[in-house]
């Protein structure tokens, strides 16, 4: 199997994180057959809880293809957490600086090396009141068009019931025991965009195509229809 080996730091993280996840939560994992067995690829994942990176990482770790997340640079500053993040090969993102482009170069290099790079395209916890995916940043489109690597949409639900986003009270709700649901889908077909000039409009269109696939999977997990279009927090603020 090509790609990053499950080395010391990832195995240590698994030893620390998997037991409490197994004890505290039930799991409904589907679509693992869509995670490529070899070669570089991208995953696009929705974000609705501070807990969901652990839920998703647990899911993909069990496929044998460990992800390299693009993570906020601030997360690398605490000594213990930073050491763990660097040891497991996570990629720091320096937002709104000239160093932000380095994260994309590192992501492209990782994919060319046969690894998986995991994107949370929304860039932060969704602001949608009903926790559907929102309008996302275009970094994933840039990397997808540069590498032409498979882009696997992944939806997750359930972590938000245990650790609700932006909760002011009852921030952790472990009982009754929640189910962490993760569903991966087939690669998003982006071939129509290859070879085109990566204008801002094109990048937005590619990103929306990916996020529509993620939203459709989330609708399947939730058992309810998704809203038309992606939630735009800027438009919502201007409408007030």
UniProtKB/TrEMBL annotation:
Pfam name, any one: Acyltransferase
Lyase in keyword set: no
Domain (Phospholipid/glycerol acyltransferase): residue spans on this chain: 41-159
Record InterPro entries: Plipid/glycerol_acylTrfase
Keywords (A to Z) from UniProt: Acyltransferase, Transferase
Keyword field contains Acyltransferase: yes
Listed GO MF terms: acyltransferase activity
UniProt-recorded name of the protein: 1-acyl-sn-glycerol-3-phosphate acyltransferase
Organism listed in the record: Actinacidiphila epipremni
